[in-house]
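User: We ran a pulldown and think these components assemble together. Before we commit to crystallization trials, I'd like a predicted model of the whole complex to look at. Sequences follow.
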Amino acid sequence: MSSILNSFNNIFASSDENLLKASEIIKNGGLVAFPTETVYGLGANGLNSIAVAKIFSVKNRPSFNPLILHIDSVSSLELFTTFHSEKVLKLVDKFWPGPITLVLPKKALVPEIVTAGNSTVAIRIPNNEIALKLIKISGVPIAAPSANSFGMLSPTTAIHVANQLKDKIDFILDGGKCSVGLESTIVEFSNDKFVLLREGGISSEEIEEFLGEKLNRKISEKNPNSPGQLKSHYAPKKTIFFIDEVEISNFNKDKTAIICFSDDKKYSDFPFRKILSNKADFSEAAANLFFFLHELESENVDFILAEKIPEIGLGKAIMDRLTKAVNHYR
Ligand code: TXA
Ligand code: MG
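Assistant: Here's a predicted model for the assembly, 330 residues in total across the polymer chains.
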């Protein structure tokens, strides 16, 4: 029992006092895990290369992949990036704070380690009060990837972070379960065009509708700078397949979990059945996906069988994450 309690002695309520402590850690070059509306981030002072380097070692990232800079106001955008387009400002006015990350040409002030040597930087304003306060009182942009170990599932609660990173991190701010539950949508702006790099918390359709133009797609598995675009990204601890790609009668019901999109009474004879959204609501389904996968990783099952989700709106991002998980076992 005590070991369970001990393993969580790095989780702190997000009181003003603890936010102040967290900001001191950031200012002093340390790491703080914090909630955002998408997933928990593992944050460091984004202007301090040595602090940012610690993120890579704690996450065990094998190479230096570029990180997202988290800011708390649109005015900071001009401090760290160069762009000459009203279109960019229109987009961020509409969707920030929120789960959309923009990739823009960087200014020299942004350290190379944040962008992995790229001339562009990924940047966003998260829609989470705790994250926004932390950035504000730290007085610096916070560089943060998702707070998981490399290749593992992104965390959507403080306990997920503590379970993965254990004592490699001293301070985890607890903000409950992430409301969006999937990483941000990433859009690059270059040559006066928006290019979709990763589906995420705001659907590409919604962005296209607002812009009145199609996003270009640059989905390339070979692009080493965008691990979010790799064919398989996170390795689930349990073997996962799509239900319609297997013969379900070959699976032992007591050892096989099912992830359904909505409750249409199917597979109710499987004791480990998770329903992403009873109302077939894509936002609710997105918020539950990683949460359920985390739960099933510690459940006594050997397999997870997932229903395919209609690829409409956030359904695209959900299917992107599920497909990447399934690809490990195809
Ligand atoms: O919702 C999110 O985006 C969360 C929260 C914490 O903000 N963060 C997150 O970070 O998912 P991470 O490191 O797990 O994924 C960031 C993605 C990576 O695939 C990275 O390659 C891409 O953003 N990225 C970062 N900078 C880039 C750049 N300059 N050009 C292209 N891709 C970039
Ligand atoms: Mg990640």
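The longest strand covers residues 100-105. That may be worth checking against your pulldown data before setting up trials.

User: Thanks, that helps.
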